[in-house]
Design goal:
heterodimer, A: mainly alpha, MetI-like fold, 2 domains, 13 helices, 76% helix, globular, B: mainly alpha, flat
């Protein structure tokens, strides 16, 4: 099926294309690689490759109460966002897939609105709303705001799982006497669980990496890791951030591999 | 006999009507159930996105003394600093989109031509940055491009330059950092659409004597344009409202739309003006997406399901 078998063009004639594509891939991956290597540097100068190696920036990250508190806030928010967004998103995807409601276009547009609307506007709007109802600088407020941003990803992921699943199976279970809930949990969910888990992982990382909205609505004791990093970067370039960045890159790799693995299971 | 059939007929019609009622009631119950499943998600979106934005829109219609006026919008045309912000924003958005096309098209083309296994390995190079924190990637570019950063140190050690190049904290830094962040948004939809191009069309072209270059120019390229368009639209729209990279890499000199919104609301607490900026930004975004949807009939949010 691959094209170089189908077309009379040899790999050699395509060398320039591979070189160009390779360079762009290098451009995409190099920054992360450089940061990971530099995070093990022993000097406070950001030099590459480092002259001496050490774990001092990791010690400075894990030893700092401020960074640790911010990390804990981010983890808490991300876990809760993943749970809430997965529940609401799966329910919504199931309802959209059933196609019994009118206005599906409008419902889709509303649920995916946070992918299109400029994040800065969501940030300012949420801050404005939260100031009236006292949700600024609270974990609850953070989880609600992040859930709205993660919801579209869960809906899209679960929906793609449901589209490759034959809903008649659930009908059969119901006609054999299972009620709606047990039909879903015993027949449908086991078959779309990989999409649900992928959706949950995407929700987790969306919340954990979120910067702009957190900048507005988190602070004080609920300062997120990204907000603290953003403020630190505005002042000066602290190599501790290289260590934190490496941890975030590793987290992305782990979650993405998990999502891929689950995706293949489907 | 006829009496019996008449009563049977009557009974079946009555059953039919009852069945019809039962089916309708069932459908209504089903619809209510589905609505109940959707409502928590819809409620959150409504409460956290629609209500605050509607509120901000309302606020933007009043001036500082609380009078209904267009002052918040009029200043966009009157004050030079606002005009400069818009010009900068569009300049950055056009430059970044152009850079993404130049870098992204060859990469997507290469990915679409590779065998399946090789393509999925190369795709990691696109997907991994896509899911790496924007903050981490911006930090990396700061480290690489700043005055005493990697590029300048290397070039000076090699003797290519004697003075550090101004690469960060200016327009160039913002463009490089943002291009890196936007590139996957262009490559993923473009690659997905290139995969759907029928190889037989290309083979037919070459069988009829077209050179590889002509086949590409006359067959492949035109067929890849819808995918390119969807990538371009999403990148351009994201650039218009982008905040993190210009805020950290612009050195206070490159003020983009979103930064202006943040300054107006956080620093000067001028909600009316900030809200007006947001309303216009949302209007431009929706207009561009609407135009794209109208022209090509595709949804720009597709990039998220094509990871």
């Amino acid at each position: 099926m691959s094209m170089e078998n189908a077309l009379p063009i040899s790999h050699r004639q395509r060398l320039w294309l591979y070189a160009l594509g390779g360079l762009v891939m290098l451009f995409l991956i190099a920054p992360s690689v450089i940061i990971v290597i530099m995070s093990f540097s022993g000097s406070s100068l950001l030099e590459f490759p480092p002259q001496e190696w050490s774990l001092r920036w990791y010690e400075s990250y894990f030893g700092s109460l401020e960074w640790r508190d911010a990390t804990i806030v981010s983890v808490k928010a991300a876990v809760m966002t993943a749970i809430v967004a997965t529940l609401l998103g799966t329910a919504a995807a199931y309802a959209i897939n059933a196609r019994t409601l009118r206005l599906t276009g409008l419902i889709n547009a509303l649920l995916t609105a946070s992918l299109i609307i400029p994040v800065i506007l969501i940030g300012i709007g949420t801050f404005f709303l939260y100031a009236r109802i006292g949700l600024n600088n609270t974990l609850t407020g953070l989880v609600i705001a992040h859930t709205v941003q993660a919801l579209p990803l869960v809906v899209l992921t679960v929906l793609s799982g449901l589209r490759s699943y034959d809903m008649n199976q659930e009908m059969v279970a119901r006609s054999l006497g299972a009620n709606r809930f047990s039909a879903f949990f015993q027949v449908t969910m086991p078959q779309i669980r990989f999409s649900i888990v992928s959706g949950a992982l995407f929700a987790f990382i969306t919340s954990f990496d979120e910067v702009v909205v957190s900048l507005f609505i988190s602070g004080g004791e609920t300062t997120t890791l990204t907000r603290r990093m953003f403020n630190a970067l505005r002042d000066q370039i602290d190599p501790t951030i290289a260590a934190i960045s490496t941890c975030l890159i590793v987290l992305s790799i782990v979650l993405l591999s998990a999502a891929q693995l689950f995706g293949r299971g489907r | 006999m006829s009496l019996a059939s008449a009563s049977l007929d009557h009974a079946s019609r009555r059953d039919g009507a009852l069945n019809g009622d039962a089916l309708n009631a069932d459908a209504r119950r089903e619809a209510r159930g589905m609505l109940a499943l959707l409502s928590p998600g819809l409620f959150l979106v409504f409460a956290v996105i629609i209500v605050p934005i509607g509120w901000l829109f309302w606020l933007s219609l009043f001036d500082e003394s609380g009078q209904l006026s267009a002052a918040n919008y009029a200043r966009f045309f009157e004050q030079a600093s606002y005009i400069k912000t818009f010009v900068t924003t569009f300049k950055v958005a056009f430059t970044v989109t152009g850079a993404c096309i130049l870098l992204g098209y060859p990469l997507a083309y290469m990915l679409s031509q590779l065998p399946r296994r090789a393509a999925s390995i190369c795709l990691i190079f696109v997907v991994l940055p896509f899911w790496t924190s924007v903050l981490v990637r911006t930090y990396a570019w700061l480290v690489i491009l700043q005055r005493k950063g990697l590029v300048n140190t290397w070039l000076m050690d090699l003797g290519v330059i004697s003075q550090p190049l101004p690469l960060a904290n200016n327009f160039a830094g913002v463009v490089i950092g943002m291009t890196h962040i936007m590139l996957p948004f262009l490559v993923l939809p473009l690659y997905a659409s290139m995969k759907t191009i029928d190889v037989d069309c290309l083979r037919a072209g070459m069988n009829l004597g077209a050179s590889p270059a002509a086949t590409f120019r006359q067959i492949f390229f035109p067929l890849s344009l819808p995918g390119l368009a969807s990538g371009v639209v999403i990148v351009f729209v994201l650039c218009l409202g982008f905040f993190v990279t210009p805020a950290l890499m612009g050195g206070g000199k490159v003020i983009m739309w979103a930064m202006r919104m943040e300054q107006t609301t956080s620093l000067y607490s001028n909600w009316g003006a900030g809200a007006a900026l947001g309303v216009v930004l949302l209007g431009v975004t929706l207009a561009l997406l609407g135009l794209f949807h109208w022209l090509l009939g595709a949804r720009a949010t597709g990039v998220w399901s094509r990871r």
